[in-house]
Each structure stands twice: as C-alpha cells, then as structure tokens.
C-alpha cells in the first residue's frame, strides 16, 4: 500500500535525481555516508513516523493537553512516540559525531524530518524545537553549556523551547519587558511573562531548556538591549527553577503541541533561597536577537517544512479518496456506471493544484537544506558565502510560500472529499486547521514580506536578489538546453520582471510606500521561486519516461499555466507603487 | 458600541441609497409598508440576533448536538433563540398576508436574515431551511398540504428539511436509490437512506417536515425518474412515521446545526400498522428535481448569505481588534509608543480586503433579493422575465463567490489577530471553520461552475449572459456620468473580455474541454460581477462626503486595483482552452 504521508519515490527523485546528495559523500564531513546509510535513515523515519506518530495524530487533536493548575496532562501516545523518536538518533542527525551526531547532510536530515511532520505535526514539534535549540547552543554556547544542556537534549532526555514573545510584544520584540538582573556569580535572575511558548511545560522529558530573550536593566533601548539566556526548568543540581506555567492556549489546530504562557521569576520557586528564574547568558549581552536568529532562521525553514508536509499528506489523502470514491459520469456519458471522481477534470484540477503546491514546497525546503549543506561544507569560501547569501534571501519565502499554498492545498483536499472532508471522520479537515498556524508563528506572513523586501533584497547593495535571479537564470539556460523552451521563456520573463519591479519599488524614494506593498511582493516573488523549483524538477525529469515523470511534467506544466501567470497583475500593482493601504484612514473603516 | 455582527449604517446605504427599497412601497404588494416598517423589522432582527443568537454561538460550537442512539441532545439556548425568532414573525417575512406573512420585500427580509446568519450561522439554519421548505410548498403544494404542513412551519411549531443526498449520491442526484411505492389511497411509502440532512432530527419543534427526493419504481432512469415527497416525522394524526435517525455527522464547523443520516422505511416505526415512511407527493411524479430547484435556488443564495454574513462579522471583529491592539511602530519611527495595528499598512491591507469582500458579497446577496422582488412584482411581464433571467444567471455566483472570498476574509481576520486569532478565546477561528462548509453544501463549487458555464450562459441562446453584460454596461455608463472613468473603463474592459472568452470557450466545439475550465470561469466572472457590485456602490456614493463614503471609495478602489486584475490571467487561460486538467491521466498522480 502506498503511504499517505509522503511519496518515497518523490523524495528519492528529489534527493538523488535532482539534488544529487550522493555527491555530498565526497566531502570529508559526510565521507562515512553512502546511498545505503541515507536509505536506511529514510526508511527508519518512514517506519517510526508511520507506526508511532501517525496513529495518534487525530487522538491528540481530540484530546489536547490539559492544565490542571499544577501540571500538563496529555495522551500517553505522545511520550511513547517521542521515546521511539529519541531511539532513532535522528535528534542529532545533522550534528557532529563528537557530540554523538550522525553527521548526515542536512538535505537528508530534512527529508527525514518531513516524515514526522507529515505524520503528526503536533508531536513532531517537541523534537524539532529541541534540535533548533541545540543547534543554537552548539554554535554559540560555551563547552560547559553544551555539556550540561545540549548533550541531554541530543539523547532525548531534555527538550528545548524558544521564548521570544510576550503578551504585549509578539511581532515587535523591541518591546519585550522581561528583565534579567546580573548576579555576582555570573548568573542572572529573570522575571517576566512569555507568551506562545510551544512545549513550555509538560512531563515528557526530564528537563526543559528554555532559550529566553530578556533585557538587562540599564542596557540600551530597543533590540540592542536584548540578551539571550538559558533558563532550565530544573537547575543542574535538580532544584526547581522559578519558571511556572501560567496557562495553556486553546488552539484551533496544532493541538498536540502544548502552547503556554510562562511566568519567569514570580517567586513560586526559590532556587538557592531566592526568587527569580536563574538564567545563564549565551554569548554576549545585547547580542540576544542576533543569536536567536540563528534558531529563528532554522525554525522558519522548519515552519515551511511543517506546511509542506501537511500539504503533501493532504494531497495523498485526497488522491486516495479520488481514486476510490465513485460519483457521476463524464459530461459526454449520460448513462453507464458512476466513475471514480479522479476522472472528472475539476477533481483532476484540484489534485494537480495540490501536487504542484505540495511537491513544489517540498522541493523548496529540500533545496534550502542543500544550501545549508553547501554553506557548511562547500568546497570554497566563495561557494559557502554564496550558499549562505542565497539561503538567507530564500528564507522568508521558504517560510511563507508553503504556509500559504499548502494551506490552499489542504483546502482543496477538503473540497475533493466533498461533505465527508468537512467531517472529523476524515483526516483532511485537521490538516487544514493544523496548517493555518504556519502563516502566523515564527514571524507572521507580513513580517516575512518586510524581511524580504525591506531587508533581504537591499542588503549588500542587492547582492542577495542578484544572486537569486542569476541562479534562476542558470536554470532557465539548463531548461533551454533540455528543450523546455516555453517554460524557460516564461520563467526568464518572470525573472526580468522581478528585477525591474524591485528596482521600481526602491526607486520611489519613499520607504513607506515601498514597504506598504511588501506582502504582495513576497507572494509574487514566492510564485517565481516555486516556478523555478518546478523548472529545476522538469530539467531533472527531462528525457525520462514513465508515469512518475509524466506526473512531474503535468504538475509542473500546471504550475506554469495556472499559477505563474498570477504574478502578472501582482507585478503591475507593485510597479504602480500602490498607495491604497497607506492612504486609507482608520476612521474610514 | 458598534455592533460586531453587521453595520446597520451599511445596510441602510445598500437598501435605501443604492437599491431604493422605498420605491417598492409604490407596488401594490408592499403598499402597507414604509421606511418605518422596514426600520422596525431591521431593528428587531438586530436585537434578537444580538441578544438571543450571538451569545450561544461559541457554546454551540463547543457542545455540538449529541445522539444517544434515541434522541439528539443540544444546548438549551438553541430552542430559546428559536422561540424568540418565531415570536418575531420573520419566518413569514416575505410571505403573503393570507398565510400570516408580513409581505415584506425580499430585499428587506434578506437584510433581516443576515443579522441572524452573522450572529449564529448554526442556529439560523433551522428557520432558514424551514422558510425555503415552506416557500416550495406554497408554490407547488396543494391547499391541503399548505394548511397541514406550511402553516405550522410559519408559526414556528414545525421545522423543515431538504433531503436530496444519499451516501453514494451527493453531487450526482441521478443516482439516488430511495424508493417511493404508491399506495391505493394516493400516499406513498418511502424507503432509503438520506445523508447530510441538516436539521434532520431534534426536539426543537413539534414536528419536522422533510422534503424528500425519491424514485417511484418503474419510472424513467436518471433525473426524470425523481419525484418529490413530503415525509413528516409525525403524521397529521400524531403517529410516528417510519423515519429514523441513523447517526449524526461530526463536522469541523457549523456545529450548531445537527447534520444527520436518516433512514426512511427501515421498519422502526409502523404507521398504520405497516413499515415504510408515509410520503405525500408534491406536484407530479417525475418533476421532483425541478421542484426541488425552487428550494435549491433559494438555498444557494442563502448559502451566499451565510458566507457573506460570516465574512462581514469576521471583518468587524478584526477591525475592532486592529483598533485596540497596539504593536510596533511605523517604519519611519524607530522609537515612541507602540501604535494601534490598524496604522500598519499591511494590517490596513487585510482590513481593506475583508471590507471589499464582505461588503461586496452582501451587496450581491441584496441585489439578488431585489431581483427576486422584481421577478415577483415588477411592473411589466418584461421586467419580471428580465429579473428572473438575471437572477437565474447570477445564482451560481451568488452562491460561490461569497463562499470563496468571505472564507478568504475570515482567513485574513485570523491573520489580523495573529496568534490570538488562532485560539478559541477569540471568535474568528470559528467563523473560518463555519464558513468552510459553504463551498460544499447546496452544490459544490465545481457544480456551480458547471451550472454557470454549462447551463446558465448557454440557455436561451446566451440570453442570460447578454443580459448580465448589458446590465453591467448600464452601470459602466452611470459611472462615467458620475466621473468614475477609471473604474468604468476597467469594468467595461472586463465585460468585453467576459463576452469574448465565453464565445471562445464555446467556439471550441468540444464541450469536454470547455467544461474542464468551468471553475476558473466561475471565479473570473465572479470577480467581474463583484467589481460591478462595487461600481454600483461607488455610483451611489458619488458626490457624498464623510468617512462612510470615503470608506466605500477606499474599499471599492482596493477591489479595482488589487482584485479585478486577477481576472487577466484567468481569462487568458480560459481563452487558451487549457487542457491540463483534461489530459492528465489518473496514473500520473
């Protein structure tokens, strides 16, 4: 039976026929690896995701974590699944052997992660937040911090969180008010409230390692005053730290992930006889936001992965339903038995759209992972810098595009199911609810737009955008060589428009009007990027025969005919420097 | 305090400054009415919706109807609200005085209904299904049927349902298998299973009047063999009929409306000592589907009303949040206190989009109601025929456009709220879940596309489409006269494209390829129609000053700049007679 989570055939195409992960084994870091080790870990991921994660996806939705005022209660399947996950060692898939890691290429690790995200996005959040947390500390923590906090995370004994938002400060981190007061022994005492903390409290692990943004009194105002601290639930000596759970949020979806309001330093516990949450500075004071972006950028691509995986599994569920559900006849046949609904062009349209969104999004996420590998292990400094810049430029798109369009895919998966898809007897309505979070957390859609248009495309005098467009042009050339001229021409035109329109937006000389158009810009460039991902796949599939490759050509062709043209009016609007949203006055609403 | 359900100011604008409902009082049927009676019933609707419907909207979502194997249990607030509704007399708002009706214009009645739909779409479904049921029987039932079944419905003592779908036959009604066997006394005995029956069983009313599609054995195959029957839960003499509740569906949203699987004639009850559900034929045998379309067309506009009302209340909730929530600063201000988020252009964009969708959708629904008034009471036969044809052509759009775009509005309402909008502590996530049903029930989105492109625009040699485009052109002329040349030009161009593209689609000579493009056609023409609704409003607002009118101009301008241009690539795709969805083969997925 085909998996309804992801297509292993497609992953193999993307990893081997397209991204050539085999070539990475020539690099010293990955020398111990081979196609066999990659296959083994992918098979293990599929098996554990299928057997331990997928079966309680609905159960966890129906029985969300409950807070009784003291502790969080959740269904036992979550802990069991996380034990199985820890046993796979995938927590440290990409990390150094020196810390017990597998030293897998990120591209392969990311493909493994997708299985768990597709199977159960709520349960998978616990280890994935932990991995991002550990990666930050591996990069910026002291050896002692790594030994004390990271190693138990990699063993699956401790879990990690990221604590940025506060009730009054979500998107605007400059306004956080959590305070960290230094003590003579080099530690800090933190006090304040943190909101939207996923995995903020539970009994799933021996300890929870919070990474917390806070301000040291007397420091500079705004983001320059923000520092980063390790604040564990239990101190190394076993004392309970002064971090307490103030409440859990009741979400529409993503319910398996407990989401909390945490109070730091309210005096419920008194470690060392003193109220205040003990914290350990990571890096230097005032560098907190920069360090947190190490984790945040990884988390943003991870959010894109969540969305892509949900879009993919929704598509496979809809496909399975469309193959088996019979209803109606073709317009040319007035009688005869009902046909499988996949035979109806409008159902095929909804499946093609889902396929083009989900496979396009997964391609983008794996491409970003491949860039991370090149950033870390590229042959030359220039290669590594190039990969870093391109990944940095693509990150807001890798976060936002799957969040928007794989949500649209899940909407279509419901529609394919008709009334059944609207009931909780079928899986797809949950995917849609779960996926809706992805446009919000780790920086809203609007924040991604500002990041792309306001930062990424202007940094280094526009080098990131130039690199992106040059790289896409390389694909256009390859597509021409492969005889894909129509698509090559369409993408070349879109590249030219992207360059022209970006220049026009910034030539206005009025950042307010430029930035007022940033969401539209994000969406237009996102579609260009995913058209590029499709052309990359079509080049890899060129000359190959069989249903799988015909399917790639059909979905890619669909994207070029039905989707890429949406950017036409978007670019025209951007070029007009539209002032609609800037000039409207609050009292007109 | 401003209502968060709808804007009475906007309704007054639409009803009086635009649709001139006052002029209807010159017609004999409405001669007893006046601005005062209209205002009174609108105020009553707002009050009862606000006081009796809105307060239990979330409660009904959290505590959906439960079936214990014998009876359906629901929260008591529903029955209380429905008693209050019955007491208003609005059930019979549009009906003849001879049956106890108010003889209100449909335009005003529709505006009243919107208050209840905005307040609590789940509870409002019971009376609105009842009204549609009663209207069908008033038009096609015998005087005895009207007396026995309709009058108690109008008094609020009986409720009504429509029973079309079966587990194996949803969109494809030709395949229903419910049988109706004639008896010598002129009654029938029905047996079969009906799926997705809203309000199919409950204790809210003394009786439930099911309108059931079934086939008389020996009749023609397909839709010509379908007849329509009244099948009450209790017969007139009080005996329990052989209709039993087999189960309730557990939906993602719209939970307040119990949705059921009903078994007819399974022998659980034996009226008159015999198994089989007693049914009474409505009209003639074999005319069932045609008669049901009387109810279905009304229900389709009603679904558009549901969607529009949900979009509208979601918009007002988001607006309220955006005015009060502070976060961040304008890009030009690095310091200073946080501003209300409505000051951020990207939030203003999301509010403008919602305003343009919700107000555009409500305008379309009221315009359709006005056409119904003209169809019934227009001065001349030509006027009435014209109104009938235009309404018939617009019905698939009135159903589909609000369902799609007011769902998009609810999505944006969540986004404006950020993380809070994703929690059940705020109202907007429920609106989004509730609204998702509207693209599915009463004919899916795909069915509406086939209805528009495959039936409505070809019927009578294209007269419906010509009338629509001529009518829009009339608005274009009025807009030019009002100095709205830019918008007039844009809409005139869209009208021309609609005509050209429709001709190109049908000139292909291959209905299969034409109809494979029907959803895209539906969506493109839908946007043209709503741009027209906006231009109508802008003409009505022309020359008027003040925030309200400036708001109309801002939202209308937004629709013309950001939305109407989406149709450009859609029309180009249609004109290309795209075969993507027709040529893809099932094995390629």
TrEMBL record, chains A, B:
Q: Where is the Acyl-CoA oxidase/dehydrogenase middle domain?
A: 162-260
Q: Does the keyword Cell cycle apply?
A: no
Keyword Flavoprotein carried by entry:
yes
Report the cofactors.
Answer: FAD
What superkingdom does the record give? Bacteria
- Quote the InterPro entries the UniProt record gives: Acyl-CoA_dh-like_C_dom, Acyl-CoA_Oxase/DH_mid-dom, Acyl-CoA_Oxase/DH_mid-dom_sf, AcylCo_DH-like_C, AcylCo_DH/oxidase_C, AcylCoA_DH/ox_N, AcylCoA_DH/ox_N_sf, AcylCoA_DH/oxidase_NM_dom_sf
User: What's the protein name?
Assistant: Acyl-CoA dehydrogenase
Lineage of producing organism: Bacteria, Bacillati, Actinomycetota, Actinomycetes, Pseudonocardiales
